[in-house]
Structures are given as structure tokens and as C-alpha cells.
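Open question from group meeting: does this chain pack into something compact, or does most of it stay loose? Before anyone orders reagents, we agreed to write out a predicted structure and look at it together. Recording both the input and the output here so the notebook holds the full record.
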Amino acid sequence: MGMPQATHFWTPDEVRALPDDGRRYEVVAGELLVTPAPSFPHQEAVKRLLRSLDDYVADNGIGYAVISPADITPESGALVQPDVFVVGPVGGRRPRNWGDIERLLLAVEVLSPTTARADRTIKRRLYQRAGIEYWIVDLEARLVERWTTLDERPEVLTGTLIWRPDSTRDPLIIDLEMYFRRVLDES
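C-alpha cells returned:
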């Protein structure tokens, strides 16, 4: 009878050294997460969210909306690539490299069949530990799950998504029905 194999504990440096083969490599708590290239609807969802977030954060001086690939480290030993994320200024200006980013204001993942488990469990827990608001966009169900730090269950949004990262400014309002119609080419 053979001995069970020890599970390899991956580090961010090992992940950075992996080949550029079109897949996305991430690590959380030593677990390697590998996903294939995203679908066209996935990328359309990312693009439309980026546009909304980028206009909003730029107009309000909040920070910068960005898409992956990126090497984001919300906690020691983790390296993730959220589909879309918002970061505040670093030292009053745009970050020059990924290592400059101290904290995300928002992380967003668009679900796909190969990422659902990691997005809803591993990454969600990571973002909650790091105090980062987290949205999971489910194209099939046409909804957004919004998670905050202490949530045991998400706020499930189907009509309107309202994001207010700064209480002194007007919120970003996204009509989710229109968003999903455009993403899924039904407008």
C-alpha cells in the first residue's frame, strides 16, 4: 500500500515563474488555481463593468479601475487576478506596479464553469479576510452576488447595483437588467 502524496504548498513566486501559456494562474493559501482563457461573453461582461467603474472612480477622484492580468496580493502568500478591480491612489498617484497596491476597494469576478468553486469559496474568503468588497457576476443566472467583510450570505442583486465606496459622493448605479441584456447581446 502506497503512502499518500503530500500536497504541494504553492507560493506566489512559484506561480510567477510558471509559463505564459494562455491560462491564468493564481494561488490562495498554498492552493494553485488554474483557469483557461475566458469566453467572449465573459470578456464582454468584464469590459462593460470596467467602463462603468472606470468612469465613476475617475470622475469622483476615488482611484483606478483595472482588469487582469495582474499580480494582486491581498494577503501574504496569496496572488490573485480579479477580472476587474478598483484600487485607490498610492501616495496620491496611480500605482506604478502591482507591488505598490496596498489595498483593493473592490474585486469582481465573472463566473465561468471552471472558476465557480474557487470564486465562491476560496477567493470570497480571501477578499472577506482582507476587508475587500467582492462582487460575483453570474451571467447564466443574470445576477450579482455582493459580499462584504462580515457577510455569511451574499446580497443577491438582479435589478440595480448601487456602489458607494465613499459616503461623501453620489453612488455608482448600474441597471443590471440592461447590463445583462447588453453583455448577452439581447439589446
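Observations to bring back to the group:
DSSP finds four helices and ten strands in the chain.
Helices lie at 12-16, 40-59, 116-129, 176-183.
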